[in-house]
Predict the structure of Cyclic nucleotide-binding protein.
Amino acid sequence: MPTRPTHERNKGLALDRSLIARLPLFKGLTAAELDEMLRGARSVRYPKQSAVFEQEAEAHSFFVLLDGHIRVVRTTPEGHQVIVRYISEGEIFGVAAALGRTTYPASAIAAVDCVALVWPNALWSELSLRFPSFGANTYKTVGSRLQETHTRVVELSTEQVEQRVAHALLRLVNQTGQKTDQGIEIDFPISRQDIAEMTGTTLHTVSRLLSAWEERGLIVSGRQKVTVKDPHALVVLAEHRDRR
Amino acid sequence: MPTRPTHERNKGLALDRSLIARLPLFKGLTAAELDEMLRGARSVRYPKQSAVFEQEAEAHSFFVLLDGHIRVVRTTPEGHQVIVRYISEGEIFGVAAALGRTTYPASAIAAVDCVALVWPNALWSELSLRFPSFGANTYKTVGSRLQETHTRVVELSTEQVEQRVAHALLRLVNQTGQKTDQGIEIDFPISRQDIAEMTGTTLHTVSRLLSAWEERGLIVSGRQKVTVKDPHALVVLAEHRDRR
């Protein structure tokens, strides 16, 4: 059972602007403006597997992930889960307020132990008007996510499952990859079931594909771990439908 | 070959605010404010099958559809087409500027003869700051489209093709349906190929499904025309995966 989130603010410490000064989201804000942004926020720890928010819950807050990885998941009425995306360090998420929504359309689950800054939604209008670059950067993020989601629709509509799984791994590598001796490792625990939920296929098919790719030396995979040894070969698999 | 768009503004007539006063997008604006919005716009006719804008072209304008239906299409590098969505009367589209993009991510094609208001992107910041409700309504539209696109990802990931086609028809009926003697007619020309491009399947499969549904009395379909006679039965097909 995951423990409950810990509110750092309870310790009575002011948040330091160095937490957010380097993030593209806050680019262009002065030191005083960063301090003002932070005055509205609190820092919260979310243990691995805990929910930052739940699908259909009232949207009370928006978030910036300081550390960790968040899995955004939609559950269908029949109980099927689809991973909508992963959120990485420095990204804003849970921006229902910015999009005129009153509930969260999906659940956000800590894939590892996470730390996030949390602002009450009531501050969204004020902060986005006061710091227009912050508002514009948020909407730029929304725009990228809309395009990324369209890309998934296109992939699901036109690609074979092998291409989709290759594309999903390449996206994770681009988003979170860490160089290791063996290749580029996806920097958080990811199971074969997670990959199935990202690509609209079954655990069985993902296992079969990963095993075949491992035999061919394209990847190394372990429990909740994937390292891409030959990204170029994976790109070829993902792009060249007629060369499978 | 489609004829070129006609710029109404060339006639030197001012645009009348009655064109937009009734649209939810501009709700809350005074008569003077509506006039000010319109001063930045021109009205353009797009003949059936002409492109309002092309995928990857420089984003110069944003649009509000006054009359007609627009098909938004993404083409893959391999030449596959996927219909991203249909735009109906009163909707804003081509909002690349609002999302910090410099190019259009998809093409917008007139599904029938259309009329749209066209604003230069350079006016986006000014107008959305001056009329915050217009900005907020635009982002609310973007939020709905993001959720709608996630819903398609979920459908493509978890549903059988029969459910997806049923969902697509129900969405079109909700968005554009007109009551007729026979049932609810989708209010613009839609081919079986279009439906295939909306649901990630083939023309052959769509034809097979529509013929079966027609035999069962659920729909009537003709050349580029679909009428839903029994929406309830279609909902049952779309939702109840175990009752197929």
Summary: The domain at 159-243 of chain A is CATH 1.10.10.10 (Arc Repressor Mutant, subunit A).
